[in-house]
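Following up on my earlier message about carboxymethyl coenzyme *A. Here are the inputs again, as you asked, copied directly from the submission form:
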Amino acid sequence: MSAKSGNFTIGDVTVDMPVKSGTIGPDVIDIGKLYNATGCFTFDPGFLSTAACESKITYIDGDEGVLLHRGYPIEQLADHGDFLETCYLLLHGELPTAAEKAKFDHTVSRHTMVHDQMTRFFQGFRRDAHPMAVMVGAVGALAAFYHDSTDINDPTQRMIASHRMIAKMPTLAAMAYKYNVGQPFVYPKNDLDYASNFLRMCFAVPCEEYKVNPVLARALDRIFTLHADHEQNASTSTVRLAGSTGANPFACIAAGIAALWGPAHGGANEICLRMLMEIGTVDRIPEFIARAKDKNDPFRLMGFGHRVYKNFDPRAKIMHKTCHEVLAELGIKDDPLLDVAMELERIALHDQYFIDRQLYPNVDFYSGITLKAMGFPMTMFTVLFAVARTVGWIAQWTEMIGDPGQKIGRPRQLYTGSPRRDYMPMGKR
Ligand code: CMC
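Thanks, got it. Here's what our run produced:
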């Protein structure tokens, strides 16, 4: 890392602040000494200009629409590898050899079952509970079952917890779905690949043979790869912040799931499909475009825009292709939702409002249509995102815990409340 430096002067105090360069991407100004030297904090709500950590895992160039994991473009990983290969890459930093990959696949497949008492835990939820609510609780509860992998200072326990989480998330997600529809849980089948196993746990029933459709399994595997990591987004930052306190990894991932649920983040795939259904027909699109542009209307075009991408989201391009492959495989020729989506995309890409603000379709725009065609209910969309993102969260958490300079995350504030005042007895207020 090359070091430049810059001076910052406030009043009569000048602070020398090192400028650090990464391998690619913008430089950062190290402001760590600023407060001691000047008595001032920096102010950047929403982290618009603030790098909260140093990381070697994922790089995004939002202007060029580039996403790299450990240096490898997402397009190449999605086309040539499978999801567990990307998991290995994120966790270990390098692509696996054939022997390493076989061992990793075997290890993950041997952790797919959850403790049998977890089934009783599910029964505490209402049947109509949102599966994301169930996931926040169930994943947090894993810490109560796997005490032998909660010592964050032991690298072996950290790796076991990582394998456990990658392996058990699909099982818990499928259980959340089965509980919701009132069907018996389907145990994992470890000779199936990751995506096929998940499809089977979701859609098989004990009274019939279930045959995995390889085209759908490959599409789902690619969807998982597309969602595997995305550097310091809101849920990953939540995982890092929770982890910085020394909390156990299961609790940290549960915190990440909670942050992912919001409609501005992972919840967008569900809300986006609801929006397409509400629009319903192509002739109603202008009304919704007008609403999206109206400053007095809180409505936004879901599946459009991104904090970092100011160009096409590279994941959206692959998702678009995957969507068409799935619809073709299932023989869905005339999906009115797809017509609405394609026309909405066309109009938005030519509309000055969206051009000026660089609002392009993001990964969530086409994922909902694809997952719906596969048979997943809308409430499961964000759960699938969580299944895939677990590896990113855990890789980022592992990187942070392994960093000897790691400190508890503790942002400062600009206080705008009342200055000190004395308590007033109730009768005198
Ligand atoms: N529809 C209409 N206008 C929008 C949209 C949208 N989807 N997104 C941003 N804008 C406008 C916004 O009103 C603002 O306009 P102005 O400058 O006139 O005030 C301008 O674009 C900049 O918006 P911002 O809110 O400052 O941008 P942000 O970086 O804080 O927000 C975002 C990013 C993703 C939260 C936002 O674009 C959004 O709400 N999109 C819809 C939700 C969505 O699809 N989220 C999924 C993100 S991708 C999956 C993931 O990684 O989680």
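One observation from looking it over: The first strand starts at residue 3 and ends at 10. Hope that helps, and feel free to reply on this thread.
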